[in-house]
Specification:
This protein has eight helices and 14 strands. It is of the alpha/beta class.
């Protein structure tokens, strides 16, 4: 199932799109402001974003530009009013992949979504995130907000494993088994402690990376 974020402040349009795409097997989450959409994207990246141009707290192209600076391959479709060529040009300049003119037929929107997803695939598997920390698995790049963070191989694998299990408490034993022993490299508990300390320091002591006393660690969104 593909997950879509739909940023739209008109409840009737949003609900119609959600119900129609839901029947086609998509999971659609609606956000009524750009601020709520940013918060959601910082926590989790979907397969595709549908973005209305005019929102209560700003224009859609500003969010699209922000998306491009953080998730280069995340597909974005603009929804704009008829004959507003300025919106269309600005949208593409700020990184939109396609646009659909309002009012639109749901079948047309569906076909555009399918065409775009055939090109991009499900990028939600490429990007993992928690609060402002994110991993681009294709590039093997780590970001804290907009800052790219350089990690060692062990630090990267540790963060990746925690993000893959976001919301779950993983034991120290399981981390040692999955991050180190799986490669045939035996290490002791002290290695994990030191690696975790270095990872936290490099990520500026993130609140979303928690220690579960006497058990292990857990990453979870703070909001």
């Amino acid at each position: 199932m593909f997950e879509l974020y739909y940023i739209e402040d008109d409840p009737s349009i949003a609900q119609a799109v959600k119900e129609y795409l839901g029947q086609k097997g998509f999971q659609v989450t609606i956000y009524t402001t750009l601020a709520k959409a940013r918060q959601a994207l910082n926590a989790h990246v979907p397969a595709l974003v549908l973005l209305d141009w005019n929102m209560p707290d700003g224009r859609g192209d500003s969010l699209c530009q922000w998306i491009r600076s953080n998730w280069k391959e995340l597909p974005v479709i603009f929804l704009t009013v008829r004959d507003d060529s300025h919106d269309i040009v600005s949208g593409f300049q700020n990184g939109a992949d396609d646009y659909v003119v309002k009012p639109f037929e749901l079948e047309v929107l569906y076909s555009r979504i399918l065409a775009l997803l055939r090109r991009t695939g499900n990028v939600s598997k490429q990007y993992l995130s928690c609060d402002g920390i994110s991993i681009d698995r294709n590039r093997r790049a780590v970001f804290c907000g907009s800052e790219e963070i350089g990690l060692s191989g062990a630090e990267y694998q540790l963060l990746l494993y925690l993000l893959q299990n976001k919301g779950k408490t993983v034991t120290r034993e399981k981390i040692l088994e999955q991050v180190w022993d799986v490669n045939g490299n035996y290490v002791n508990n002290n290695t994990l402690t030191v690696t975790m300390k270095r990872l936290r320091d490099k990520l500026h002591q993130p609140a979303c990376l928690k220690t579960v006393r006497s058990v292990g660690y857990r990453m979870e969104d703070s909001m």
